[in-house]
C-alpha cells in the first residue's frame, strides 16, 4: 500500500512545487491526499500537508521538532512528554499481606498498568493510580508500573508473616495487689514490645522477656494493650473485690457470695472467674442468703455494689439490711431481683443501669425501706410484687415502662414524698393499700400534704376509669381518687417524655 501511494504522489504532476489546498485540487488524479505530506526521493513533486503515521508516510515523513516545539514540516505542536513517579522505589510486605504503591502520571490520561517480575513471590493489581502488591512467598519481585510509554519500578521484598499473640483475652485479678502474668509470643517482628493499661487506677502493666505482668490497684475494669511490630493485642482486665466466694454450677457458670476474708467495702463482682476444673466461666448469680445462712451479703457494711457484667440473678436477701450502701450498679443482662434483695438498705439512694437492663421482675419487698429518690424500670419488666417500694420515704419518681398488669398492695405504702408515677395502659388492677399513705406527711390518717403530684397514664381517661382500683376513696388508695393535688396526664407518650428529658 505504501508503494502504491508513493507512486500516486509521483503522478500528481499538476501540483509541482505548489503548496496549499489548491495544489491538491489541481492534481486531478481521482484520489484523496487527505492532507498528508509526501516527499519523493528526487524532490520533483511535493504535496505539503500534515505529518502522519499511516500508509502515506515514508522514511522522511517523521516529525522534526524545532526549537519552538513545533514540527518544521507541518507546524504541529510537540506533544507533552509522559512522566511517571512512584511514592516508593522499595517496599516490604509479609506473606499474605498487601502493600500499596501510589503512582503519579503527567502527560497522559491513559490507564496505568502494573506487572510483577516474579508473580510466584508477589502479585500486582491496579485500581486507578494505586498498585496493590500481595505477598505470596518469601523473596523479591520487581513491580513495573507503566503509562503512555513511560515506566518506573519498585522492588518489593516479601517476608515471613509476623507472629504476635497474647495468652489471655480476659484477665481477672483481686484488689489486694494481686499479680498476674500473661505470655506474649513475638516472631518476625522488628522494634520493641510495649504494654500498658488505659486506667492505672485499676491495674498497671509491665513487659519483659516475653511476659506481661499485671498488678491490681483497685476494683474496676480496664483494658491492656500490648503493641508489637505495629500490631495491637487487647485484653480485658478486671480487678474484683478480694475475698468473694465463687462456685461452679454444671461446668457452665459461676455463683458468687460474700467471703470471710473480704478486705474492701466496695463490692465489684467480675464478669468471669477461673474455676480449677472448668477454666474461665461467667459469673451469673449472686447467691441468696440460704437456709444455712450461707451466701449473700445480708447485714454487712458495704459502700458500693457492681453486680458484674454477666450477673442475671440477684438472689433473695442477697443484700438484705446491708448498711452504708449508696450506689448499686447493674449490667444490661440483669433479669431478676429476688425477694428482699435490698430490703432496708436505708442509705441506698441510686440505682445505675437498671433502666437499660433486661429486668423482668422484682420480688416482694425488693427495695423496701431504701433511700431511693427516683427509679425507672425498663420495658422488659412485666411483673411487680407486693411492697416493692414499701416505706421508701424519699422516693419521688417511679416510672414503669414495661407492660405490667397489677400494682400490688403495699407497693408504695409509706412513700410519703411520691410526686410522679408513670403507669402503662396494660395495668388492669391496683390493689388495696397499693398507695396507702403514699404522698402523705401528716400522721397515719387521711391527711395529705399540699404539694402537687402527677400521674402519667398511657391510656385514655376512659381506660383509666376502667381500671379496678380497690378502696379508691379511702386512705388505701386515696391519692388516686378525688384529690385536688393530683394532676392526671392521659395518653402519655413515655418515649417522647424520656427524649425530651434527655434533651432538656
Which features characterize this protein?
504 residues; disordered N terminus; mainly beta
Assembly type: single chain
**Continuous helix count:** 4
**Number of DSSP E strands:** 37
Net shape: elongated
Task: Pick out the low-confidence regions.
Answer: 1-60
Largest sheet: number of strands, sense, barrel closure: 7 strands, mixed
What is the distance, rounded to the nearest whole angstrom, between the alpha carbons of the first and last residues?
87 Å
β-strand percent reads 35-45%
**Helix-residue proportion:** under 10%
* Class derived from helix and strand content: mainly beta
* Mean of all residue-level pLDDT scores: 85
Radius of gyration: 43 Å
Structure description:
6% of the residues lie in helices and 35% in strands. The chain is mainly beta and 504 residues long. The strands form 9 sheets. Strands 19, 20, 22, 23, 25, 27 and 29 form a 7-stranded mixed sheet that branches. It is elongated, with a radius of gyration of 43 Å.
Amino acid at each position: 500500500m505504501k508503494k502504491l501511494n508513493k507512486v500516486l504522489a509521483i503522478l500528481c504532476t499538476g501540483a509541482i512545487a505548489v503548496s496549499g489546498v489548491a495544489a491538491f485540487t489541481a492534481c486531478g488524479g481521482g484520489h484523496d491526499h487527505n492532507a498528508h505530506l509526501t516527499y519523493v526521493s528526487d524532490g520533483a513533486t511535493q504535496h505539503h500537508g500534515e505529518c502522519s503515521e499511516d500508509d502515506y508516510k515514508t522514511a522522511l515523513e517523521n516529525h522534526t521538532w524545532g526549537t519552538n516545539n513545533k514540527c518544521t514540516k507541518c507546524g504541529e505542536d510537540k506533544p507533552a512528554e509522559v512522566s511517571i513517579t512512584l511514592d516508593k522505589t522499595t517496599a516490604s510486605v509479609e506473606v499474605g499481606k498487601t502493600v500499596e504503591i501510589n503512582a503519579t502520571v503527567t502527560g497522559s490520561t491513559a490507564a496505568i498498568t502494573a506487572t510483577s517480575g516474579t508473580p510466584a513471590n508477589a502479585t500486582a493489581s491496579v485500581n486507578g493510580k494505586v498498585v496493590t502488591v500481595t505477598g505470596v512467598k518469601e523473596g523479591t519481585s520487581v513491580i513495573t508500573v507503566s503509562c503512555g510509554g513511560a515506566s518506573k519500578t519498585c522492588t518489593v521484598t516479601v517476608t515471613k508473616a509476623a507472629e504476635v499473640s497474647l495468652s489471655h483475652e480476659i484477665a481477672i485479678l483481686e484488689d489486694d495487689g494481686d499479680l498476674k502474668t500473661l505470655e506474649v509470643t513475638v516472631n518476625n517482628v522488628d522494634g520493641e514490645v510495649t504494654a500498658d493499661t488505659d486506667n492505672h487506677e485499676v491495674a498497671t502493666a509491665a513487659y519483659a522477656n516475653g511476659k506481661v505482668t499485671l498488678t491490681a490497684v483497685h476494683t474496676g475494669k480496664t483494658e491492656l494493650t500490648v503493641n508489637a511490630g505495629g500490631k495491637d493485642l487487647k485484653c480485658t482486665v478486671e480487678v474484683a473485690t478480694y475475698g468473694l466466694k465463687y462456685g461452679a454450677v454444671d461446668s457452665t457458670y459461676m455463683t458468687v457470695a460474700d467471703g470471710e476474708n473480704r478486705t474492701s467495702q466496695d463490692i465489684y463482682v467480675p464478669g468471669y472467674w477461673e474455676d480449677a476444673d472448668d477454666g474461665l466461666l461467667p459469673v451469673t448469680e449472686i447467691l441468696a442468703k440460704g437456709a444455712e445462712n450461707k451466701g449473700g451479703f445480708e447485714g454487712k457494711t458495704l459502700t458500693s455494689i457492681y453486680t458484674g457484667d454477666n450477673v442475671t440473678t440477684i438472689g433473695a436477701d442477697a443484700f438484705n439490711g446491708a448498711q452504708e450502701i449508696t450506689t448499686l450498679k447493674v449490667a444490661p443482662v440483669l433479669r431478676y431481683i429476688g425477694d428482699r434483695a435490698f430490703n432496708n438498705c436505708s442509705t441506698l439512694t441510686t440505682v445505675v443501669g437498671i433502666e437499660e437492663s433486661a429486668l423482668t421482675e422484682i420480688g416482694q419487698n425488693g427495695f423496701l425501706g431504701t433511700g431511693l429518690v427516683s427509679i425507672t424500670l425498663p420495658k422488659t419488666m412485666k411483673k411487680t410484687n407486693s411492697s416493692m417500694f414499701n416505706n421508701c420515704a424519699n422516693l419521688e419518681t417511679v416510672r414503669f415502662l414495661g407492660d405490667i398488669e397489677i400494682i400490688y398492695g403495699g407497693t408504695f405504702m409509706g412513700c410519703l414524698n411520691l410526686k410522679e408515677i408513670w403507669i402503662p395502659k396494660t395495668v388492669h388492677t391496683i390493689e388495696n393499700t397499693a398507695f396507702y399513705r403514699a404522698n402523705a406527711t401528716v400522721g397515719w390518717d387521711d391527711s395529705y400534704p399540699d404539694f402537687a403530684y402527677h400521674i402519667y397514664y398511657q391510656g385514655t381517661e376512659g381506660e383509666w376509669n376502667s381500671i379496678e382500683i380497690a378502696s379508691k376513696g379511702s386512705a388505701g388508695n386515696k391519692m388516686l381518687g378525688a384529690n385536688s393535688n393530683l394532676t392526671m396526664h392521659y395518653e402519655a407518650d413515655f418515649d417522647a417524655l424520656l427524649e425530651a428529658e434527655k434533651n432538656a
